[in-house]
Amino acid sequence: MALLAGSLVLSYNAREIERSATNLERILSASMTGYRPLHDLQRDLQRAAVNQGLESALVVDARGVVLVASNNALVNLPLPHVLQLTGEQPLRALFTDCPSKDGVVSCLNQDRRVFVGPLPWLGGDFLVTMRQSPLALEGQGGGFGDRATLITVVNLDAQRNEALTFVLLVFIAGTLPLIFGSLGLLLMLRRHLLPQLLNMAQIDALSGIFNRRTFMETAREVLAKARQVGVPCSMALIDVDHFKAINDNNGHEVGDQVIRHVSKFLAEAGRSTDLVGRLGGDEFIILLQNPRDRAVQMLDRTRQQLQVSPLRKHDGGVVEVELSVGVASTAGASGFDLELLMAAADAALYVAKDRGRHQVVCLEMEDTQ
């Protein structure tokens, strides 16, 4: 009886997952046809990965090149290269029928949905989908009839564990009311509470950007994949100058407004592949997939733009906001080690403050002069 109940629950769970995947595909496909900048679509994929339980999502153009992805390290890589990367095994299930690894591009012109795992008809470990969609983005071709392929991977571990837990409850209790009550609770948790808890766990409540834990976890993955494909990266630690004085002179409510102002500015000033997080207090962190000279130029430009974009208070007054920035890169002694990069950027930030604040310092560039 427990086996039968488990099969029914898992089958129902699989159908629910398929319906959710279809709705998510429609939402993301709409983002691909909105004539918006490419970085807006990049942010939509990243938000979906955070809020919709996606393992990964990517958009591949007709050439087989990744245009955007929830994982920044995959952007601009050929699809055959992506399929060979460690950790991308679920994607390969979509292309098992292709004649060769070089023929995967020819297999993009189809819609597919595959459950990957030991019991795929009951849900499996992953749900991998491929959906064709028109492509109409600012600066991306723009020709009538342009199309791209949206690929999504949903990790089903949590859903499967929930279903197995439910089966155990059925076996122990053996009552119909408990069956319906538990099923209703599981559906409510999955549809409403769990997405909210996931968002709360990953996003800093005040600033709206990644919190420290999520930034560290994501940055570690990005650096590992950047090392594999040889993409240079730079790390920046950023402090708001004289933040204590801003709080003392204007109150903590204005201080919170400054944090939100800086967070929004940093998130919008960088590229879609940049990771932006708040470490705590008035300290921010950015991981840029850029060499150090371009990273320093971008950060210095951002610092100057923020200076001429003061925070406007509710009473009509303004608060001028200045930043001190320390930069370190993977070209230095730290390599792709996250903790060493942060330590090197922190040392550069200390020098920026010691020199009078409101500047960008990269000690590696000074050592080479």
Description:
InterPro entries: Diguanylate_Cyclase (IPR050469), GGDEF_dom (IPR000160), Nucleotide_cyclase (IPR029787), Rev_trsase/Diguanyl_cyclase (IPR043128). By secondary structure, this protein is an alpha+beta fold. It has two domains: 159 residues, Beta-Lactamase (2-Layer Sandwich); 156 residues, 2-Layer Sandwich (Alpha-Beta Plaits), CATH 3.30.70.270. The protein is 49% helix and 18% strand. It is built from twelve helices and twelve strands. It has a five-stranded antiparallel beta sheet with strand order 2-1-5-4-3. A five-stranded mixed beta sheet has the order 7-8-6-11-12, sandwiched between helices. A hairpin with a 5-residue loop joins strand 9 and strand 10. Helix 8 crosses helix 9. It is globular.
Count of spatially separate domains = 2
Return the CATH architecture of the largest domain.
2-Layer Sandwich
Strand order of the largest sheet: 2-1-5-4-3
CATH C-level name of the largest domain: Alpha Beta
Instruction: Tell me the number of strands.
Output: 12
